[in-house]
Amino acid sequence: MLANNPAPLQPKLFSNKQLLTLILPLVIERILNVSVGFADTIMIASVGEAAVSSIALVDSINNLFLFLFSSLAAGGAVVVAQYIGQHNSAKADDAAKQLIYSTTFVALVFMATFLIFNHNILRALYGDLDPQVMNQAQTYFALTAISYPLLGLFNSGAALFRAMGNSRISMRVSFVMAITNIAGNILFIYVAKMGVLGAGIATLIARFLSAILMLFLLVKNGDPIRITNLHRIHFNWPMIRRILNIGIPNGIESGIFHIGKILVLSLIATFGTTAIAANAIANALSSVTNIPGGAMGTATLTVVGQSMGAGEVDQASYYARKLMKITYITLAILATTLFFSTELLVGLFNLSAAATNLAVKILKLLFIMNGLLWPLAFALPQVLRASGDVRFTMTVSIASMWIFRIGFSYLLGRHFGLGLQGIWIAMYIDWVCRATCFVIRFLKGTWKEKTVI
Fold first, then answer.
1. Residue 9 lies in a domain
2. CA separation for the pair 29, 207 (Å, rounded)
3. Rounded to two decimals, what is the model's pTM?
4. Helix axes 131-146, 195-221, angle to 10 degrees
5. Structural domain span for residue 186
6. Is 155 domain-assigned?
7. Is residue 5 part of a domain?
8. What's the total number of domains in the chain?
């Protein structure tokens, strides 16, 4: 549907070598991130299903704010990328600094809120959990909340380097964070026998190190932008508004999307510990198959953003189609491999027979649907966001999430008694709606008329 590539204008803004240099580190970075999550789940599974369930419940909240910070960072990255496309380094430098200030402030607000209302939030979202699950969830929630400002700084720095077309930096820092996290898990979970507390401490240390390292590299190695005098805080409100014009719709979209996921998870919690554990394993493995699509989506913000900033709309369209082709090919190969390895992979988590069988059933269908629908539902809208067409993506995503994913989750999962499998089927219905809307928008070309700077 998106395969008829128009010939790009000459000279090309990005050669194949430049695209590979941008994309390959993003793929490696995503592999690292997924590997850490995978390793975390395997290690904490050795403590018991209550530990797996507590971390899964808290991470559903943490993911909401991970994507919120990523959305704010993406807003700044689009603005910076378009200034780079205009060769306006002064504006790009200022936009980078304002992004760091904005993200840090938001992160501090949420950190304080979650530390103060830790138990109340968990109780409101998940009701009367098993006391052992609740106690461990509170511990992990507090430690990860402390790391929010660190996570915000890391995401801002990573987004800025990607906007410059230098994804190698964020890959290297992600590698340091991954090694630190895994080493910390080994020390605190296996050696010190600290369980969920140990997992939280390892995460906090890894995020602290990555945030400090990312700030240092921004100051020393930023090119074509460089941040100086960061300690002399000055808010440039017109620039912040430009960033927030992209970041807020992205943040609202991600926020409401993940609030919806939390509501769905609260429904899953009523199905029992087996369903919670199977869902956690399915989520951990499903993230693997999204590695190519996620990397391509991130690269799209840079490539399409710089093309639009340079006024090369035809090249923006050309690269969008090219990146979608690559996404489909790589994702199909990966999904096929995972489909035939499902039982082996799920067996690594050493769960009960009931949880293992349920996770296998869910993942077999997921890998098929992922290869067919995920790129159009989640990678293609990055083209629209990079051009500034963020309100459309926000509206579609929110409506589809609440009408189809949440509505059909309760209908299929509870009313028709399909349980956890019904909830995952509802997700695929949501994907069909998103994909349809985004393909129509892309082909109409409305996104080409948007302006950011």
1. no
2. 15
3. 0.75
4. 20
5. 16-449
6. yes
7. no
8. 1
